[in-house]
Amino acid sequence: MENTPIIITVAAVGAEVLREHTPHIPITPEEIAEDVYQSYLAGASMAHLHVRDEKGMPSQDKDIFKKVTELIKEKCDIIIQYSTGGAVGMDIATRTQGLVNKPDMGTLSTGSLNFGNEVFMNTESQMIEIANKLKNYGVKPEIEVFDTGMIDNAIYLLKKGYIEAPLHFDFVTGVRGGVRASKEALEYMLPLLPENSTWSVAGIGRAQFEITKEAIKLGGHVRVGMEDNIFLEKGVLTPSNAALVKKMVSIVNELKPITGRSVATVEEARKILNLKG
After folding, report:
1. Tell me, what's the pLDDT at 277?
2. Could you give phi then psi for residue 222, rounded to 5 degrees?
3. Which of 157, 173, 186, 214 has the most CB atoms less than 10 A away?
């Protein structure tokens, strides 16, 4: 939609980045909540959440999710989205246990993907299991697309009634073996989406800002954060997720004379995504 405000999602921690990669990655519930809050102040209207255990390792523990969510809500009204991907190798029960907390949104990856020598598994039955849990808890799915065939899987789930329109997609680009972080890839995928869908783009590593620029110009929304990229610029580690959000806001503002689009508030983002307040 022309001039639609741009939803900036912050993906603060993820499951792969460790302190040995960057000392700035938030790990504890308090660190994650504060980083999300600072990102909210910088312009983010949605937080894509992973959590870590007391050793700093990936966890999908429902109680840790609950604590992080409560700490964030004490600070701001940012939209809360849980990852149901977790870490490679986790079973579906583990990956989805946090949904009992009823976040605003939860991810639904609609296909499997190679991650190096490992496989992020999402069989048809697993997708249906996650979709059913999202629906049972009243949580809106964000369809995670790592390659084009995953769009067709989402359409299948929609036709079968496991998920409901309008859908929101997130194109995760730049993962080796998945869809490229390119304008051409986006232009190919966009006509494949169901009518009235909304969509955002995440770029992995150095692709983060270039592909999100293309998303803005093509009418989409964007995701930034240390889950996807730990560098503010070449060779310079970002000191925080908020710094990545601020850079994204500056890009939105630079492109505004061309696009007419500004950064979405939380209220605007909820309206765009058809979320209750």
Report:
1. 66
2. -135, 155
3. 173
The amino acid present at 217, given as its one-letter code, is: K
Q: How many CB atoms lie within 10 A of CB 135?
A: 15
* Residues making up the chain, counted from first to last: 277
Q: Any residues with CB less than 8 A from the CB of 108 and at least 6 apart, and which? A: 84, 127, 130, 131, 134, 141, 142, 143, 144, 154, 163
Query: Residues 42, 271, 33, 122: is their CA dihedral positive or negative?
Result: negative
Read off the tokens for 127: 């997708």
Our count of domains for the chain comes to 1
Structure tokens at 156: 């299948």
- Report if residue 200 sits inside a domain: yes
- In CATH, what number is assigned to the domain containing residue 52? 3.20.20.70
How many Å apart are CA 123 and CA 134, to the nearest integer? 17
Rounding to the nearest 10 degrees, give the CA dihedral for residues 148, 270, 44, 78. Answer: -120
Strand partners, 82: 49, 106
Residue listed under structure tokens 């970002």: 238
224: Cβ–Cβ under 8 A, 6 or more apart, which residues? 8, 9, 10, 11, 202, 208, 209, 212, 241, 244, 245, 247, 248
Task: Provide mean pLDDT across the span 222-249.
Answer: 97
Please check whether residue 135 is in contact with residue 153, taking contact to mean a CB–CB distance below 8 angstroms: no
pTM over 0.90: yes
Full residue range of the structural domain in which residue 124 is found: 8-272
Tell me how many degrees the CA angle 190-194-198 measures, rounded to the nearest 5.
65
- Assess if residue 3 is contained within a domain: no
2 lies in some domain: no
Candidates 27, 5, 6, 63; CA nearest to 201 is 6
Residue 162 forms part of a structural domain:
yes
